[in-house]
Task: structure prediction
Amino acid sequence: MHRKYKLVLLLLTITSLLGGCFGGNSEMAPLKDGKGKLRIVYKDEESFNRDYGNLFLMKYPDIEVEVIAQDDVFEQSEQTSTFELSEEKKRVIEKYKPDVLLLNESMFEAFAQDGRLYDLDMVINQDKYDIDGFMPGLIDRLKEKGNGKLFGLAPYFETPVLFYNRGLFKEYNIEPPRDKMSWKELLNLAGRFSNEGVYGLYQTEKPEKLLYNIATASGLRLVDAKGEKLLIQSEGWKEAVTMTADAIRNKSVYIPEQDAKNERMDRYYEPFHQEKAAMTFQESWFTDLLKEVPMYEKTPKIDWGIVTTPVDPASPNESAYVHLSEIYAITANSENKRAAWEFIQFINGTDMAQVATLGNNGKLPTRTGYFKDLEGRSTEPFYLLKPKQGNGLLKDKNIPHGFHELFDPLLSEAMQAIIDKQITIDEALAELEMKGQQALVKAREAAAKKS
Amino acid sequence: MKRVWRTGIFMLTILSLLSSCAEQKEELEPLQSGTIKVVYLDEESFYEDYGKYFKLQFPQIDVEVISKSKLITEFNNVNDYEEATRKFLNTYNPDVLLLDEEMFKAFVEEGKLYNLKTAIHQDEFDVDGFMPGLIDKLKSLGKGDLYGLVPHVTLHALYYNEDLFKEYQVEPPRNKMTWQELMELAARFAGSGSSGQHVYGLEETYSDPGREVLNIGFDSGLQLFDEKAEQVLINTDGWKSVMKLVTDGVRSGSVILNSNGSNKHFMNKKAAMIFGSPDLMLSLKQNGIQMNWGIVTMPVHSNDESVNINSREIFAISAASPNKRAAWELVKLVNGADMAKSKSKTYNGTLPSRTGYLKEYDGKSLEAFYMLKVKETVQKWGNDHVPESFFRLFVEPLRAEMQAVIENRKTIDEAAALLEEKGQAVLMQARSETRK
Result:
């Protein structure tokens, strides 16, 4: 009898020890009586309540949310000249100890790498939370930022799609654009309008920015992995520059005129609304303009369609144009992880996805199957492509701070010279490589001095 | 014996049949999935204001929003607003309607609305949490029954600039003052303050000396007509004392009357008091005006401490709705305590009709908005028999006579006597216009 008792005790000890073992990364206990509290950093309290708070309150009446108004906090520190957003956010976190953070992609990556965020894998498993319902590629993209771990979820994503004027394509007997075209195909298609006095593609960027847009799709890089060498003199860049310059020169693509202050002179996307341009990249809210502008400006009503953004033929199912500006994460040292998770799972959940697009506010839920209809058109072009991994051309972490300010004016000058045929592309790129390399060195030195 | 028994049963059956049809006791069925049609400003604001909450609670119900803008875009050929609204509602047959008081009253009388009594009882929906008098007012519009609910109200209060009261060493206004008291208080600002600058006691918007007389008179419970509205009665001690109040106020510079909606004197701290809706405190904040402001109730008079509100958005259910349960769930949610709580957290200038949710703004108590009871019945100008066009015709002579008094060209007695004559003539003219 005595021995048996001892054995039980021993077993109990072992079990508890084992439990303790997993304890460091253990299951998340449920909230006691559903009660809890959490603190979040958000723009301001009112927008928080409008965007999420009131809906959350309805489903979780006993979880109290305290909002740290970012606008107020930043307003004080923005007075100082050294204001830097992600540094400031770190300071806010240390001071106010929020449980839930709202981060953009680059900050999410930095925070995840710094070990400031809580790994959600465990609780997702524990709650059997559905992460298969998100658009393909989304979870992978988030995991990539956390070196394979999932530190946050994003309820919405942003992407443009290609809007086109069906009437114009019909009128000139040109077959309409397709999903997953390459830039080359798109610009060729746009070029078919140039004899008709219509711009094929309407866009609002200057030539060098258009070049960046085009280069983004094909995964081109400006600098090498060490950030030491400029890579502009490559076949890939040469092709992109050629395409861009040709398209501008033969007026397949619209380049907005600037006034003396460098401000765009057209308003309300005029050329597209006046049927002087056949295609344009816009986000979903552009449909509001398509509805309203004809009423106010007496422009024709446009019969429009949408297809996906252009792709790299080497990976035709991926998009380089997807952005995640709202990623929600739990701070690693939060004392209210369960309440914080309840909030995050709710705003990224199916209930929220169902109500998110009501009223057509332009939001794109990352969960598929909820945003189905855009003014009677299928929303497939928004969801057809997987978000590409990596940071893209312009957010490349290898580019030193301040480089673009030095390099972009050089690029702009070179592009104009190429378009005006004052110089060949080869000459231009060679010169750009040389001057650009100097700019890169300069920017690196400046960045090194600062840190 | 047996026959009597049979007759008894027969009678009972008939009785029960009769009662069921007379009382029209319509217990609501449990919720079934489907679509309801709701009238609202537009789709986007509906979903922002209520629709998302509804969908979250009732995912099985879809809402089709009938945008009120269609009233303008599709029925703009109809001159009469009421007629246009009727055509609009007949075309779209919404389950949930949004009505102003006049339409609401008319629709109740025509039997077009669903009586909420049974549903409220069945679901134990709390109607006691609304501000005092509101339900009574809605019932009075509904001939004693409740056919609609109002989630928010538009109310005014008296705002005052605490700093100016301190500077001039005047004790601040109180709740439930009379107009006499208010004007006396305003008068204490006449003359100059420590800075030597003139400050008005009270700023009035959309006013002139004539309108001001009417406002104060009606607020003080004066009658301008006899019972049948056959006689204009302005040559009375009551009206003459109001005319004196206004004359003294304008002459001494204690009151400034703006013909438009400008409130610049108050905003620029050149007036100590002004009437305003909650919009005013939003605008103080948005314009970054540093001011210690406070609010007290509108002035009242001794035998009536109630305030008039005009509800432009009464939510009601169509008697013909095939999905009354779902419609009721929406009306319940819109007017419920949870929604009042939520709306208080995203305050945009509308006051929840339920008390106790929006208590303060910017650290200032908002109690004064909720302190007075809602007037149960409102007679326009205190008399139902007055033709609509009377006031349009009377306001100008009244203003002109008051101006003459203020400029010492006439005495109050002369003006009052003349106005009674003019008023009588105008009343006759208005009657004949109406008859045509």
Remarks:
- The longest strand of chain A covers residues 36-42.
